[in-house]
Amino acid sequence: MKQVLRAFAMLLCASMGAAWAARPEVVDLPTRPGVSERILVEQPDRAPTAVLVLMTGGTGRLGVLDNGSLRNGGNFLVRSRALFVQHGFAVVLPDTPSDHSTSPFLGGTFRESAEHAADLAAVIGWAHQQFSRPVWIVGTSNGTHSAALAALSPPGLGAPDGVVLTSTILATSRFGPANARPVQDMPLEKVHVPVLVAHHQDDQCQVCPPSLLPRLMDRLKTTTAKLLTYEGGQSSGPPCEAFAYHGFNGIEGKVVDDIAAWIASHPPLIPPR
Prior knowledge:
273 residues; alpha/beta; Rossmann fold
C-alpha cells in the first residue's frame, strides 16, 4: 500500500505540471575534456524568472532517458520539479557525468572534487547563457555538498546567483559510498551569495541531525543566509530516504513555496547575463 501511495503522489506532482509545463528537453552537455553530462530541462510556458539547478541526493544517479523520463525520480527535489516550474522557474536536473556512469556514481568524496566543480560550472554557465536569468543551485541531502561546492566558485558565468540547502549533511557518514565531510566543514566563509537552509525539525537521518544546524548557520554569517525549519508531514521507510521526514514527505508544496518566495526576494545585483 505504501508503494502505491508513493507512486500516486509522484503521478499527482507530474500531472500538476502537465497542463502548463513545456515538453522536457534532454541535453548532453560537454563539461570537461572527453566528458559530458546529461541534463533534463523543464520550463514553464512563459519566460522563466530564474533557473534552478536541482542536485539530487544519494549517489546522484537519475538515469535520464532519451525521452526525458527518469529511472530514479523519488527524491524530494526531483519529484517536486513540477511545483518549481509552476512558480515560473526553469529547472535543470543534472545526471552523473559520463566518467561516473557506474557505481558508486557521485559517491566517496567526488562531490568535493575539482572535476565535480568543473561539471557544475559548465551546467550553471550553460543555464546562464541559455536563459539569461539568475541561476540558483538547490541541493538536498548529499546534493548539499554539490550546492555548497558550486557556491565556492569564483564569480562568473559558472557561479550560481544563490544557493538553497535542504536536508543538509551535517555529520560524517559511517555507511555506504558517501563519506564526504559535513557541509559546515567546507570553507563557507568564501560564499558571498544568498543562502537558504531548509530542514525538517524531526529529520532522523543520522548525518542530518537538526541539533547541528546552529554550526552551519554560524559558518554562513558572512552571507545573506536564512534558516527555515519544518514540522509535520509523514515519515515512511528508512530515515535517510526520500519519503521520510528527511524528504519533506507530505509538505513538499509548503517547502517549495518558501523556496520560491526566498528566491523572489533576492533579485540579482547585476543585470541578467
